[in-house]
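ugh finaly. both done.
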Amino acid sequence: MNYQTILYEVADGVATITLGRPDVLNAVNLQMARELHHAIETVRADASVRAVFLTGAGRAFCAGADLVNMGEGFDPSNLAHVRRALVELFNPIIIKIFEMEKPWIAVVNGAAVGGGCQLALACDLVLIAEDAYFCEIFAQRGLVIDVGGLFLLPRIVGLHKAKELAFFAEKIYGPQAVELGLANKCVSKTELLHVADEWAKRLAQGPTVALGLMKLGMNRGLQMTLQDVMNYEAAAQALAVQTHDVREGLQAFIEKRAPKFQGR
């Protein structure tokens, strides 16, 4: 696919997806949504990709949906248009990232607003620059949080704090985002890409099958009982022990050296 609104690159087992509409703070229109779908499916199908790095071009991560210029005659006041865009395009992006058995890192280089918050929070690890921020802007527009925010926020920060973030729509900058659990680590903007690259390479050199099974178990476990999770763990472990990486990990332990995982 000839991407026009995103940049897609693969190197050293890491796929880098950069949202590429910096003139509108990487707001997502219908074209970008379709290109993200294609990139996500490309990541899923490419066995050489073992980790994903998601960021934004310019001074923002993502300003959410582009309600001013969504494209293709989209009318933000038309119920059918809004529902179709959410159900058919925007929601599946979040679900596919959340359910993919490969680790994703959101590199929040600037504003992550509205649906842009959910795009970051659906990822497995979140790095944020000190002057970058999250803002669930919906209440300021008279809208309801969407694309998974009502699921993700309470589970990440707790119910009462989630309501505070939703009702007041305040900006949560890097250091506070880490305190609340919205991000894993906050660094200066000059260090952000370096740290993100280091993390992505570490993930790409890890036991990909095991990482994917742990990710899936944790994410699905949010809606499961303890017994159900333990049953999943047993099934996942039975799959993991059949991989090349488990044999390598055990051999490395015996030989007292660092393992060299191949992701299979």
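ok and the 2nd:
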Amino acid sequence: MAKRIAEPAVPVQDTEPDGPRLTKGERTRARLVAAAEEVFGEGTYDEASIVEITRRAGVSQGTFYLYFPSKLDIFREVVRDLGHQLRMRLSVAVQGAETRAEIERRGFIEFFTFIEEHPEMYRIIRQAEFVDRDSYRAHYERLAAGYVEGLSKGMAAGQVRVMDPEAVAYCLMGLAEIIGMRWILWDGGGGRMPKTVVESILDFIYHGLLPADRS
């Protein structure tokens, strides 16, 4: 698995494109979270250690405890951060899309791209079910909330058949997750989502979502 933690000789980027400049403390915290994502994603929660997290982040164990009281606290932050990153990526990807069909296309493509970049997300989220169920549930509820809002708008605009928006949101989330697991994670991981698979998924979704009199 490719490492994303910069070597000590490489300056840490302290700005995001068009974003605020990060303080030293914020940079350190971000490095710890990124390192923890790698460590938790490579093994189990029990196997992960604060020693390894701090080693990869390039900070002391004392520094770790300035930001997180325990291993559980940084695990919760990793789950929260992954969900936040995913939701932000999806939000940006669908900006400007005028139809629900186009939103679904962009959203699914962006989701698969995110999973290609963060394959460890699957292992981490599944561990959360047993390590911290509140974080596990919150991850899906936050993701579903935005989906429900968008589907409800599509239904009101006549672009989506009127159904229970929450039920549809979880159906689509489940579809994306299992397809991503099959084509990106299996067979050793590091896979790329085939275009034919994406088109087949969207064809299935369109015929299930769009009104009967729409092509």
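summary for the 2nd one i guess: Residues 1-19 have pLDDT under 50 and may be disordered.
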